[in-house]
Structures are given as structure tokens and as C-alpha cells.
Specification:
285 residues; mainly beta; 2 domains; 5-stranded antiparallel β-sheet
């Protein structure tokens, strides 16, 4: 199994070099071979040419494989924290979704609105949460309005190659005549909309950032008006911070972030669906 060679200051045998590089114990076969230092971005090649001289000292601290590998870390749990940028060589992308708003309820004797989703923030860029859907009530406004989508704002520090900011999608309005709440707003590049409640509870918004569906209520056994429908929650906004090359943010940098919680669906029946939490996603190559 290949791996890093021990650092300077330690005895090193040719057999250990072969264990690290798996090319044999004749140092001549290592001429022109690419090497990397463990734990940093330094790379190079051993001297090449038929007469190039190699000795054991040329191998200290080196390895045959690049320690900088591509990867992704996704953070869905609402709250604040830090992320340490790993060793990477090329690009870095940070995506941000705000929390989705909760759906409004369809209710017989009151108006109950879904709560707003919370904002997500990293490097000075904020993806706002979606607004909760408005509840519908059979003794008032039977059709609750959908919540508006969140907005994205701010400028990234350090300055990125590109910064994309996209507003969230609004939730749909309730349709009391069809006993149906409004669907939640789908999140840009994110989660699917929470389903509209059809004479029942609204669906939960898909992760990340989608709004919950509104609840639909009907009581055909009573006098008119006998129907109510809550609006769907709006989705959270979306932002993407892209660095096209290494250097603006170096490996080992500690980045603070906040992931916004999804809004709660309104109760009592027919209840609205909860909005999905936001998300912070780091991708590096």
C-alpha cells in the first residue's frame, strides 16, 4: 500500500521507499516520477535522464499521490458553526439556501399562518428564508395567500470569481372551492415544493429550503361557508459563491456559517406543512 515517506531526521531504507511508492528498490526507476508533499500543495518530479542521480535523501516527506482531493461537505442542521477549508488545489464553491416558510392552515374558526423560514449566512452572503403561508378560515378569508420567497443579499469576502443570488419562489394560494391548500414554493436549485393539502394537511417542504404546503379544510356537513384553504410557504433564497482557483481562501481557513431553520406549518387542522431547513454546501476540486 502506497503512502507518505517519513520526514527528515529519520533513518530511511530503500525498502521503505518501495513501500511508499511501490515501484521497486532500484532508485533508477524513480527518475521523472511525480511526487507530492504530504499535507500541502507542493509537487514536483524526481530528476530525469539516464544519468540523473537519486539517493535516499530525495525521498523524505514525499508521496506518490496528491493529498489534495476533491470533495463535498453538506450542512443541513439549523444553527451556527464553523467549517475548516480542506486541502484543495483548484476550485471552491459554497452554496447557500435559506429555510422554507411553513404552510398556512385551513381552519373553520380562525386564521393561522405558517411561520417564516430563517436566513442562512456565510462569508457575508445571506440567503433569506421564505415567508409563511397565510391561513384560510371559512368565516373570513377562505383562501389564504401564499408566502413570498426569500431574497439573497450581501457581497462575499474575499471577493469571488462569481457570485450568484436567486430569490426564492412564492407559495401557491389556497383554493377553498377545491378543498385544497396552496403548494409550497420550490427552492431554486434545491428542494421540491411541499404538496398542497387536499382536504387534509399540507406536505413538508423538500430539503433544502422548500416551503411547506397549505392545509385544505372542508366540512360539507355544515352550512356554507364550509371550506377553507391555507397558502403554501415561500421557499428560501439561494446563493452560490465560486472561486475558480486556489488562493483567495486557503486551506485551513476557518469559515463561520449559519444555517436557517425551516418555518413551522400552522396548526390546528387542517395543518400546514413545515418548511425545510436551509443548507450550506462546500464543494472543492
Amino acid at each position: 500500500m502506497t503512502g507518505p515517506i517519513k520526514p527528515f531526521g529519520n533513518p530511511l531504507a530503500i525498502s521503505e521507499i518501495n513501500t511508499g511508492f511501490a515501484l521497486g528498490q532500484n532508485l533508477g526507476v524513480y527518475r521523472g516520477v511525480t511526487w507530492y508533499y504530504s499535507g500541502n500543495l507542493t509537487t514536483g518530479t524526481f530528476s530525469s535522464g539516464a544519468t540523473a542521480r537519486l539517493d535516499v535523501a530525495n525521498f523524505y516527506g514525499k508521496q506518490p499521490t496528491d493529498p489534495a482531493t476533491a470533495g463535498t461537505t453538506t450542512i443541513d442542521t439549523a444553527g451556527s458553526g464553523t467549517f475548516t477549508i480542506p486541502l484543495y488545489r483548484n476550485t471552491l464553491t459554497i452554496e447557500i439556501w435559506g429555510g422554507g416558510g411553513g404552510g398556512g392552515s385551513g381552519n373553520h374558526d380562525g386564521t393561522y399562518n405558517g411561520s417564516n423560514g430563517a436566513s442562512s449566512t456565510v462569508l457575508g452572503v445571506t440567503a433569506g428564508g421564505g415567508n409563511g403561508g397565510v391561513g384560510g378560515t371559512r368565516y373570513g378569508a377562505q383562501n389564504g395567500a401564499g408566502g413570498s420567497g426569500g431574497t439573497a443579499s450581501g457581497s462575499a469576502t474575499p471577493s469571488p470569481t462569481t457570485l450568484t443570488k436567486t430569490a426564492g419562489n412564492a407559495g401557491g394560494g389556497g383554493n377553498a372551492g377545491g378543498n385544497r391548500g396552496g403548494a409550497g414554493g420550490a427552492a431554486p436549485s434545491g428542494g421540491a415544493a411541499g404538496a398542497a393539502g387536499n382536504n387534509g394537511a399540507g406536505g413538508v417542504g423538500g430539503a433544502p429550503g422548500a416551503g411547506g404546503g397549505g392545509g385544505g379544510y372542508s366540512d360539507h356537513g355544515s352550512k356554507n361557508p364550509n371550506q377553507a384553504a391555507g397558502g403554501g410557504g415561500g421557499s428560501g433564497a439561494y446563493a452560490s459563491i465560486y472561486y475558480s482557483s486556489y488562493g483567495a481562501i486557503t486551506s485551513g481557513t476557518v469559515v463561520s456559517y449559519t444555517v436557517g431553520a425551516g418555518g413551522l406549518g400552522a396548526t390546528p387542522l387542517e395543518i400546514g406543512g413545515n418548511g425545510a431547513n436551509g443548507r450550506i454546501k462546500f464543494t472543492w476540486t
